[in-house]
């Protein structure tokens, strides 16, 4: 088997299972563990995976601070935000997570009918300052500055008092077997609690977040009602998510 073929199979396994164990791969390929470990080292150097003891994990997306991320507004995120905003109906209570993708939803929300937006992000609330028909509920708590969202017991207590019709969740990574994830344990707990309170949860996913994993798990992919993704994504990358029963909107 050629090295390039072997590496391609390793990447397929990583996308499918969320991890690669060198010993098991060596057995499947009838090769030495040293050969597989060398492949994994080379692939890690190319940025294709993250080496860990005994094998490899998907690459975690970089986590630049919020002020850096908010200056980057891609056309893809604007499309995703517009598609999400179009889902909102009159009189609904929607919950917007923090983040640059959900900021695009806030900017695209309908102005022809009334609804309520709950958020634990002061920056998202500020986006709605001049919105003519949106009532805003701002959840408080300890400010996690990296993502500019409130976290902790105070936040969870306030979220327990509401039942959103739709939660637009923000994540740093999504993987079919490892689930939806982010970089902070407390932030993940708050996101998970919002999802448990909401009638349905949808997530906006740009290409770099797909088939990746961050340190703190939020919930399984199968708990999602839907994903909104760029239309240019390869269908092969989406098939594992469709198999979990998630409705996928491509825009």
TrEMBL record:
Q: Where is the HTH deoR-type domain?
A: 3-58
- Cite the InterPro entries for this sequence: Carb_Metab_HTH_regulators, DeoR-like_C, DeoR_HTH, NagB/RpiA_transferase-like, Tscrpt_reg_HTH_DeoR_CS, WH_DNA-bd_sf
> What organism, scientifically named, is this protein from?
Rhizobium puerariae
Q: Which Gene3D superfamilies match?
A: 3.40.50.1360
Q: Identify the keywords attached in UniProt to this record, alphabetized.
A: DNA-binding, Repressor, Transcription, Transcription regulation
Taxonomically, the superkingdom here is Bacteria
Q: What's a Gene Ontology MF term here? A: DNA binding
Task: Please give the name of this protein.
Answer: DeoR/GlpR family DNA-binding transcription regulator
Coiled coil segments of this chain: none
The reply to whether Transcription figures as a keyword in the UniProt entry is yes
